[in-house]
C-alpha cells in the first residue's frame, strides 16, 4: 500500500509511561511552533500506547525536530521519530483506507452481482459437462452392446444356423 507521508506530522515512538502530551509538547517546542500533540490511548488501560504524534505548523520545523530527536532519550527511553502516515479509518476496498466505510457501497453491490453471475454460469457449465459426460457414457455403452451382439451372432451356433437357413430359403 503506497501512502503519502505527512511532512508536518511526526510519529514519535518509544515513549515512557510517564510521558504525557504536555511533556511531549515541551520536548518538541524548541524546533518550532506546534499545532497539535496526540498520544492515542489504549482502550483497556486508558494509558498511551508508547507512541504519539506531533504536528508542526511548518514542514521545515518538523524535519528539524525529526533530525534532532530521532534516537534521542526522553525519560530513559530512546525515541524513534519519523514522518507520520496519514490517519486512517476503517472501510474501503482494502479494509483500511482514508475514506468512509460506505464509500465503496456501489462497488460492493456490483461485486456481489458479479459473484452471483459467476456462480450461476459455473453451475450451468457443470450441468452441461455432466450432461455431456452422461451422453458420452450412453454412446460408449451402446457401442459396446453393439459389438457384443455382433460377437454373439458370429460365435453362437444357433445364430449361424439361423443365418444359413435364411440364406438357403431365399
TrEMBL record:
Compositionally biased residues, Basic and acidic residues: 131-147
MF terms (GO), sorted A to Z: RNA binding
Lineage: superkingdom: Eukaryota
Ranges for domain RRM: 8-86
Magnesium among keywords: no
Keywords: RNA-binding
Region described as Disordered: spans on this chain: 126-170
PANTHER family: ATPASE E1, RRM DOMAIN-CONTAINING PROTEIN
Protein name: RRM domain-containing protein
Organism the protein comes from: Spirodela intermedia (Intermediate duckweed)
Amino acid at each position: 500500500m503506497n501512502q503519502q507521508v505527512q511532512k508536518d506530522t511526526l510519529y514519535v515512538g518509544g515513549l515512557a509511561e510517564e510521558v504525557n502530551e504536555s511533556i511531549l509538547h515541551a520536548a518538541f517546542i524548541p524546533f518550532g511552533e506546534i499545532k497539535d500533540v496526540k498520544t492515542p490511548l489504549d482502550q483497556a488501560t486508558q494509558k498511551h500506547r508508547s507512541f504519539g504524534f506531533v504536528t508542526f505548523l511548518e514542514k521545515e520545523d518538523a524535519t528539524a525536530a525529526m533530525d534532532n530527536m530521532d534516537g534521542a532519550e526522553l525519560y530513559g527511553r530512546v525515541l524513534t521519530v519519523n514522518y507520520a502516515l496519514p490517519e486512517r479509518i476503517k472501510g474501503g476496498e482494502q479494509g483500511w483506507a482514508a475514506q468512509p466505510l460506505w464509500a465503496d457501497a456501489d462497488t460492493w453491490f456490483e461485486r456481489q452481482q458479479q459473484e452471483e453471475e459467476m456462480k450461476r454460469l459455473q453451475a450451468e457449465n457443470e450441468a452441461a459437462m455432466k450432461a455431456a459426460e452422461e451422453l458420452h457414457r450412453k454412446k460408449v455403452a451402446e457401442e459396446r452392446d453393439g459389438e457384443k451382439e455382433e460377437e454373439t451372432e458370429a460365435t453362437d451356433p444357433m445364430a449361424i444356423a439361423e443365418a444359413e437357413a435364411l440364406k438357403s430359403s431365399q
